[in-house]
């Protein structure tokens, strides 16, 4: 789920940055440091929306390095996967165990066990695609799928999730051709 | 019965029976047999029956050799049941199946007195031999009592009956051995011990012979023995044996000459290889290896050959007394084969292993295959099968009659069927309902038996819950109640006390306060949801970690099975939930063996190429799976590895398709080849081969091999290589290609592979391809000579791509092509002083070239010069406001390929008197348009150095040796350059007169031995020293420190020593 949240981040400023554009440097460094990062409890920081200048407070000089530690409050757009959340994702890769799909920075793996029965043995190694028994559904890289998050793993700076398309209203929603699918 | 191995013939009558020494569990019977006195031939015969099947086959095989004809014998042969033929064949191809050829005529074995040769001779008298023959004769007669139509079982029963009879008789006659027969074990052991050969027994000699000829040779010796005995001069050997070992036969005798005599004239026996077997080894010769485990009905076997190799199969029936069996397995059918042209199909059949898939007649019919039929499986009358391309398919499974041992092997303890395999095997039965065949009963029956097998096997192997009496419950686990009133309730395990557990229910907030509830261990089950990260705590996959992707519950099973996607190897494994524990730990399972770990770069031995390396992609129990530098995956044992190369891989640097430096840990995307488009991290590298790791790949633990030149460095690192300067100044990659600033130590390979013309020096005018480049020099491989020369970088002009020169001949001589340089302005050590300005001077050259020649490229650029990379770089230079996107493809081409007559550079360059800066400004729009702009940062350089450089006649360039202190020749007079002013210099002649001359007017004095010389090129440029000697094109010189250097002679210039 995407949501907006007020967060704090500590930035270590080197003395070289002390100067007229200090605040914009702080903002730049903040963005460099946090954007794309996965915070364990909050999810991926998709974008730093706003850094209220009023919230940039004075920093503290570190005694031994001369660096300044500033705490910056900012507003960020976050993406956090929730268990049982339904998401639309883009398939990035298929292999014989399932496929990987992305929702922005979030990688979701859908195992073949989490696919409908008619897809279970439908991996086609030549096309790198999952094809249903009746050849109606072809899931391949570039497709859009609607999936449900079943589990997630938080690693250092990274979140991955396990999804399923074995449920009502889940599965292929866009065959990747650019046409608007008529499934829904 | 004696299975002492091999054929044993005992031509002599009364010798101690050597073979007794072979301790065999069955030897008690043997004892009985041998202990039967010779006066009771009937006993002998009947007791022999046990061995008869093979004995008689051997007789059959040897009967051709036998000149003596026995009528009865022939009769027997004719009426021999076919069953024995097959037995014989089997015995022939399988040496260890052979049974001892005990003719067993020796009456009493226990007498252990020393036999003299006389004794033997006496014993081998004619009548003895005849008696033997008669006995054999009689035995064959008895063979006729076998009814050829009898079932094998009947025959077996008959033999057994007779045997029992014989045992009884023996019991009565032989007292001490009866103990053995009664199973008195301790006594048996002692008796066995006493049977071991001692010094008083005959010796054993070993002979080499051709493989497969062993039996034949033994027969020959036997025949010879009998023949000699008949003639009244018996051989002094006691036995001849072909034991299990191939290519060896053994002869037993008291004397060596007797052995030599016995083998004389026997062809095929290598007499020179005669060797006596030491006493201790004699038992080994006769030791029996365990018989092959027979397969039984409903046992699991593994296929041993072909595409099916390693596949699990179920024995449906055993045929021909265990030689063959009918197995059931999941077919690997390639239906596309018949559509391919024959040659292609042949290759595909050989190389591609089709996936396991159940046979579906509807599918096959849909593909338009004609030869699909319904048939009975031969020999299984009640079973209707689909018959397709020579194979029978029942219920989707393949049914096939195969030979035990060669085609299938029993599933041993080492490789029990995995849960995975069993489920794959069973899956079909789950879906049985879909196939409305008349075999539903059969199918469900199979399913049931398979399920039983499954649970049975799981109990047997570590897959079961053998060590866990509490289902692997640990405090803190989430559990589900599976029995009792509260079925389905979930809770957290609070404590375990013997067989009871206390559980705190989850999600019962709205039910008021609920305390801990007690359950029996058997009433609860560990509950692991899909998506949980778990660690396997026991069993086959112990210590693997991964994410649960599915939880399946088999009917009739207490414990559910979780499918886990492992973290490290990206494999799916099935594990029982009781063996799992939720854990955040990320382990790699088994990842170490003999000091090697997963993803280690290792040097492989063998396999042809000397420096084959590979990366370990799987660590097995005893072997590794390695993907080598050609991308080929194979299994190697730890002994085959010759050390790790991880550290050298960590230091290595390669170049991507754009010439960016790439190292281990960088992320690259593959630009060409089979992995095109993939993005991955460099895990290891070896020379130009990258071992890339991608988390999203499951095969080979995510590792695949790509050449470094097929990759593009991705991410922000692209730019960093060249610009070490202050931030904000980013050097376009293209700029570096030609004009390599002196302040950059970075290796730049933009020139590599290009065709250049050497502009000055010994090789002036030569065309060549750049083989290597350093910041200051390039190594040019001359087109016209088989030679590589090192040339200063600015002395080459790029004239073409790797396919040859594309320059315009008219333009190539244009003096203005060459950058004006100020090489030797001042400086006490001229070369050092000279080098830096030279680079500075070089920059305008490139600016000129690129600026000037753009038009020609936009009209007719060659595609080789257009890798996409530079475009990316240019895009990052977006702050360049005049940058025109449309021209971007031409950027690369600008570098100096062909010249165009229309050159914007010309006017500015001819503007000689002015400083560079204004002219640069003139060019700026152009340059920026083509994104090859000379960086502003360097402009000051032009102002200072470039300007002075331009002051002189820029049509000529002074030769590299044109500097102070160099000895020259001018109009036949020798002189020394005193003061250089660009192209001209003040020289001092021998008579101390001075004159101002230009570089073109003089020539260098070739250095001779013991001259003081200056190195003007190559790796040691700038070095001064004494020329020690000249060896062809090389010169050896001693530098001021007294060290010796080898330098190309062409790089040397004679100078006068410093006074």
Automatic annotation (TrEMBL), chain A:
It is found in: Nucleus. GO terms for molecular function: single-stranded DNA binding; single-stranded RNA binding; translation initiation factor binding. The keyword Transmembrane does not apply. Residues 13-66 form the RNA polymerase Rpb7-like N-terminal domain. One of its GO terms (cellular component) is RNA polymerase II, core complex. Residues 81-158 form the S1 motif domain. Its main location: nucleus. It comes from the Eukaryota. Keywords: DNA-directed RNA polymerase, Nucleus, Transcription. The keyword Phosphoprotein does not apply. GO terms for biological process: positive regulation of nuclear-transcribed mRNA poly(A) tail shortening; positive regulation of translational initiation; transcription initiation at RNA polymerase II promoter. InterPro entries: NA-bd_OB-fold, RNA_pol_Rpb7-like_N_sf, Rpb7-like, Rpb7-like_N, S1_domain. Transmembrane segments: none annotated. Belongs to the eukaryotic RPB7/RPC8 RNA polymerase subunit family. This is 19kDa subunit of RNA polymerase. It comes from Chaetoceros tenuissimus.
UniProtKB/TrEMBL annotation, chain B:
Gene3D superfamilies: 2.30.30.30, NusG, N-terminal domain (3.30.70.940). The keyword Ribonucleoprotein does not apply. InterPro entries: KOW, KOW_Spt5_1, KOW_Spt5_2, KOW_Spt5_3, KOW_Spt5_4, KOW_Spt5_5, KOW_Spt5_7, KOWx_Spt5. Residues 20-34, 47-60, 84-100 have a biased composition (Acidic residues). One of its GO terms (biological process) is regulation of transcription by RNA polymerase II. Residues 1-113, 425-444, 715-752, 879-950 are annotated as: Disordered. Pfam families: KOW1_SPT5, KOW2_Spt5, KOW4_SPT5, KOW5_SPT5, KOW7_SPT5, KOWx_SPT5, Spt5-NGN, Spt5_N. Keywords: Activator, Chloroplast, Elongation factor, Nucleus, Phosphoprotein, Plastid, Protein biosynthesis, Repeat, Repressor, Transcription, Transcription regulation. Residues 728-738, 879-922 have a biased composition (Polar residues). It is found in: Nucleus; Plastid, Chloroplast. Its main location: nucleus. GO terms for molecular function: mRNA binding; structural constituent of ribosome; translation elongation factor activity. GO terms for cellular component: chloroplast; DSIF complex; ribosome. Residues 101-113, 425-434 have a biased composition (Basic and acidic residues). Residues 294-321, 472-499, 527-554, 595-622, 661-688, 1006-1033 form the KOW domain. It comes from the Eukaryota. Belongs to the SPT5 family. This is Transcription elongation factor SPT5. It comes from Chaetoceros tenuissimus. The lineage of its organism: Eukaryota, Sar, Stramenopiles, Ochrophyta, Bacillariophyta.
């Amino acid at each position: 789920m995407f949501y907006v949240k007020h967060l704090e981040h500590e930035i270590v400023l080197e003395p070289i940055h002390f100067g007229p554009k200090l605040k914009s440097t702080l903002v730049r460094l903040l963005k460099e440091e946090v954007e794309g990062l996965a915070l364990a409890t909050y999810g991926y920081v998709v974008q730093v929306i706003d850094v209220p200048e009023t919230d940039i407070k004075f920093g503290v000089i570190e005694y031994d390095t001369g660096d300044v530690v500033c705490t910056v409050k900012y507003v960020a757009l976050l993406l956090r996967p929730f268990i049982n959340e339904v998401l639309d994702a883009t398939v990035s890769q298929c292999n014989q165990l399932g496929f990987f799909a992305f929702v922005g920075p979030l990688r979701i793996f859908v195992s073949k066990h989490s696919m409908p029965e008619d897809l279970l043995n439908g991996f086609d190694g030549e096309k790198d695609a999952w094809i249903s028994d009746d050849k109606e559904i072809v899931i391949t890289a570039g497709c859009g799928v609607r999936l449900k998050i079943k589990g997630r793993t938080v690693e250092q700076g990274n979140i991955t999730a396990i999804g399923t398309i074995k449920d009502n209203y889940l599965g292929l929603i866009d065959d990747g051709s650019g046409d608007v699918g008529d499934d829904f | 019965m004696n299975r002492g191995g091999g054929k044993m013939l005992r031509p002599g009558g009364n010798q101690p029976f050597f073979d007794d020494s072979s301790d065999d569990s069955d030897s008690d019977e043997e004892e009985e047999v041998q202990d039967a006195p010779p006066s009771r031939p009937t006993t002998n015969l009947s007791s022999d029956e046990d061995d008869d099947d093979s004995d008689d086959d051997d007789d059959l095989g040897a009967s051709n050799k036998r000149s003596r004809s026995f009528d009865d014998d022939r009769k027997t042969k004719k009426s021999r049941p076919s069953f024995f033929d097959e037995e014989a064949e089997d015995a022939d191809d399988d040496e260890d199946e052979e049974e001892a050829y005990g003719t067993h005529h020796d009456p009493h074995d226990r007498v252990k007195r020393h036999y003299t040769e006389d004794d033997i001779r006496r014993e081998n008298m004619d009548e003895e031999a005849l008696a033997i023959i008669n006995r054999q004769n009689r035995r064959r007669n008895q063979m006729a009592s076998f009814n050829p139509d009898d079932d094998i079982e009947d025959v077996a029963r008959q033999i057994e009956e007779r045997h029992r009879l014989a045992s009884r008789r023996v019991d009565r006659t032989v007292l001490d051995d009866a103990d053995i027969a009664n199973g008195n074990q301790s006594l048996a052991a002692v008796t066995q011990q006493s049977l071991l050969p001692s010094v008083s027994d005959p010796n054993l000699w070993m002979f080499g012979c051709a493989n497969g000829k062993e039996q034949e040779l033994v027969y020959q010796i036997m025949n010879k023995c009998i023949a000699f005995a008949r003639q009244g001069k018996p051989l002094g050997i006691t036995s001849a044996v072909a034991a299990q070992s191939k290519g060896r036969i053994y002869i037993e005798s008291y004397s060596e000459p007797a052995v030599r005599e016995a083998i004389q004239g026997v062809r095929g026996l290598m007499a020179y290889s005669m060797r006596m077997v030491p006493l201790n080894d004699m038992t080994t010769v006769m030791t029996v290896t365990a018989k092959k485990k027979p397969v039984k009905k409903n046992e699991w076997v593994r296929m041993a050959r072909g595409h099916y190799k390693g596949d699990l199969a179920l024995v449906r029936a055993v045929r021909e007394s265990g030689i063959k069996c009918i197995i059931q397995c999941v077919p690997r059918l390639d239906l596309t084969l018949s559509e391919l042209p024959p040659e292609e199909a042949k290759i595909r059949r050989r190389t591609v292993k089709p996936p396991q898939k159940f046979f579906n007649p509807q599918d096959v019919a849909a593909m338009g295959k004609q030869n699909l039929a319904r048939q009975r499986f031969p020999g299984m009358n009640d079973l209707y099968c689909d018959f397709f391309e020579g194979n029978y398919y029942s219920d989707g499974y393949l049914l096939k009659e195969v030979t035990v041992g060669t085609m299938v092997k029993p599933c041993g303890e080492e490789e029990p069927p995995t849960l995975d395999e069993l489920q794959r095997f069973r899956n079909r039965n789950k879906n049985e309902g879909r196939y409305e065949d008349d075999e539903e009963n059969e199918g469900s029956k199979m399913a049931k038996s398979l399920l039983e097998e499954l649970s049975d096997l799981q109990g047997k192997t570590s897959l079961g819950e053998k060590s866990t009496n509490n289902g692997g419950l640990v405090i803190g686990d989430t559990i589900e109640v599976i029995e009792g009133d509260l079925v389905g309730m979930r809770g957290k395990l609070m404590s375990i006390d013997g067989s009871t557990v206390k559980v705190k229910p989850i999600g019962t907030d709205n039910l008021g306060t609920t305390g801990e509830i007690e359950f029996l261990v058997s009433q609860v089950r560990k509950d692991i949801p899909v998506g949980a990260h778990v660690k396997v705590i026991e069993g086959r996959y112990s210590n693997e970690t991964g994410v649960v992707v599915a939880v399946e519950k088999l009917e009739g099973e207490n414990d559910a099975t979780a499918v886990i996607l492992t973290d490290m190897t990206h494999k799916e494994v099935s594990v029982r939930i009781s063996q799992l524990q939720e854990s955040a730990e990320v382990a790699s399972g088994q990842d170490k063996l003999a000091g090697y770990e997963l993803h280690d770069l290792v040097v492989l031995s063998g396999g042809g190429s000397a420096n084959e390396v590979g990366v370990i992609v799987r660590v097995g129990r005893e072997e590794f799976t390695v993907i080598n530098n050609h991308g080929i995956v194979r299994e190697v044992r730890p002994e085959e590895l010759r050390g790790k190369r991880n550290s050298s891989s960590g230091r290595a640097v390669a170049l991507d398709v754009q010439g960016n430096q790439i190292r281990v840990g960088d992320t690259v995307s593959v630009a060409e080849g089979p992995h095109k488009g993939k993005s991955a991290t460099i895990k290891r590298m070896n020379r130009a081969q990258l071992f890339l790791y991608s988390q999203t790949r499951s095969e080979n633990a995510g590792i695949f091999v790509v050449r470094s030149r097929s990759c593009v460095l991705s991410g922000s690192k692209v730019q960093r290589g060249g610009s070490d300067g202050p931030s904000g100044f980013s050097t376009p990659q293209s700029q570096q290609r030609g004009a390599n600033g002196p302040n950059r130590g970075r290796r730049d390979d933009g020139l590599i592979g290009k065709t250049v013309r050497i502009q000055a020096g010994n090789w002036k005018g030569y065309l060549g391809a750049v083989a290597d480049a350093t910041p200051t020099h390039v190594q040019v491989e001359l087109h016209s000579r088989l030679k590589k020369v090192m040339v200063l970088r600015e002395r080459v002009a790029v004239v073409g791509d790797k396919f040859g020169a594309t320059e315009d001949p008219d333009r190539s001589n244009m003096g203005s092509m060459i950058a004006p340089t100020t090489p030797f302005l001042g400086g006490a050590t001229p070369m050092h002083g000279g080098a830096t300005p030279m680079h500075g001077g070089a920059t305008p050259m490139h600016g000129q070239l690129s600026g000037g020649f753009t038009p020609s490229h936009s009209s007719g650029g060659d595609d080789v010069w257009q890798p996409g990379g530079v475009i990316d770089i240019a895009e990052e230079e977006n702050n360049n406001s005049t940058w025109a996107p449309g021209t971007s493809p031409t950027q690369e081409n600008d570098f100096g390929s062909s010249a165009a007559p229309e050159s914007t550079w010309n006017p500015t360059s001819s503007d000689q008197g002015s400083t560079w800066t204004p002219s640069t400004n003139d060019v700026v729009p152009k340059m920026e348009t083509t994104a090859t702009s000379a960086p502003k940062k360097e402009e000051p350089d032009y102002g200072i150095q470039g300007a002075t450089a331009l002051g002189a006649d820029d049509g000529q360039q002074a030769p590299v040796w044109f500097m102070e202190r160099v000895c020259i020749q001018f109009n036949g007079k020798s002189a020394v350059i005193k003061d250089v002013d660009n192209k001209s210099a003040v020289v001092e002649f021998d008579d101390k007169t001075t004159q101002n001359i230009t570089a073109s007017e003089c020539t260098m004095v070739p250095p001779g031995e013991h001259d003081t010389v200056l190195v003007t090129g190559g790796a040691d440029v700038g070095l001064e020293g004494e020329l020690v000697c000249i060896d062809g094109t090389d010169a050896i010189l001693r530098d001021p420190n007294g060290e010796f250097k080898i330098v190309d002679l062409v790089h040397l210039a004679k100078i006068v020593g410093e006074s």
